[in-house]
Amino acid sequence: MTVETLVFEDKQTLVDTAARRFVDLVTTAQRERGSASVVLTGGSNGIAILAALAADSGDIDWSKVDIYWGDDRFVPAADPERNHGQAVDALLSKVPVEPARVHPMAPSDGDFGDDIGAAADAYAAVLAEAGDGTSPAFDLHLLGMGGEGHINSLFPHTPATAETTKTVVAVEDSPKPPPRRITLTLPVVNRSASVWFLVAGADKAQAVAAAHAGAAAADWPCAGAHGTTETVWFLDRSAASDLPD
Ligand SMILES: O=C1O[C@H](COP(=O)(O)O)[C@@H](O)[C@H](O)[C@H]1O
């Protein structure tokens, strides 16, 4: 497993480079195995890469991409905070995805109503069906990161971050609003071949440095995420500013 840390002059260069590499990864998987599976994330860079792909996604066959989410807010479907809705606006409404291959987490006004536990269990069932009873080994899991090191909705010193058995859990008291979320857990993230962090801004520098120094996942959840083939940190200069030279 390789760990690569790439530092870019600015956020747009970071996003554009990650988008080009996304095209390479997905088209390679499609050439070798017929399809690709990717886990999307929310946040500023997670959505910016989707906008870049909407502008140019090279030879990706979008009808042969299985699309999942690392986390989402358990709010009504039309709430602008939904990672799913943002991804639809930025990319999925603009490319010919196969609807049956797009797997959003349930909103709070969806099939499970306000029952967040049932919604999380249903997503675990989706993963189990696609992944031989557990979860798929995704080709790519994109991750944004908060200043305190959260990834998906895995926050420091929380049961969700400590989870070792369940693939999907409900979070009822997220420190970052909105409080109710559904998230994949670290064991699922870590079954992905490629795990890519998309991180910009000086407020993220301490967490980036902690992860690179091998911090505990309980303290800095980002430190617990690794791909089975590669882990890539796409950073702008500010996010990299606490790393040793
Ligand atoms: O809460 C969340 O935030 C992170 C990072 O967001 P950013 O705007 O600081 O880049 C995101 O990756 C995650 O999916 C989301 O739920």
Automatic annotation (TrEMBL):
What is the enzyme's main class? Answer: hydrolase
Instruction: From the UniProt record, give one GO term of the biological process aspect.
Output: carbohydrate metabolic process
Listed GO molecular functions? 6-phosphogluconolactonase activity
Q: Residues in domain Glucosamine/galactosamine-6-phosphate isomerase?
A: 9-233
- Hydrolase as a keyword of this entry, yes or no, is yes
- Pathway terms, separated by semicolons: Carbohydrate degradation; pentose phosphate pathway; D-ribulose 5-phosphate from D-glucose 6-phosphate (oxidative stage): step 2/3
What InterPro entries does this protein map onto? 6-phosphogluconolactonase_DevB (IPR005900), 6PGL (IPR039104), Glc/Gal-6P_isomerase (IPR006148), NagB/RpiA_transferase-like (IPR037171)
The answer on whether this UniProt entry bears the keyword Hydrolase reads yes
Q: Which reaction does it catalyse?
A: 6-phospho-D-glucono-1,5-lactone + H2O = 6-phospho-D-gluconate + H(+)
Pfam families of this UniProt entry?
Glucosamine_iso (PF01182)
- What's the EC number here? 3.1.1.31
Which keywords belong to this entry? Answer: Hydrolase
Q: Which PANTHER family does the annotation name?
A: 6-PHOSPHOGLUCONOLACTONASE
Q: Which family does it belong to?
A: Belongs to the glucosamine/galactosamine-6-phosphate isomerase family. 6-phosphogluconolactonase subfamily.
Function statement: Hydrolysis of 6-phosphogluconolactone to 6-phosphogluconate.
Designated name of the protein: 6-phosphogluconolactonase
State the species of origin.
Answer: Gordonia desulfuricans
Q: What broad taxonomic lineage does this protein's source fall under?
A: Bacteria, Bacillati, Actinomycetota, Actinomycetes, Mycobacteriales
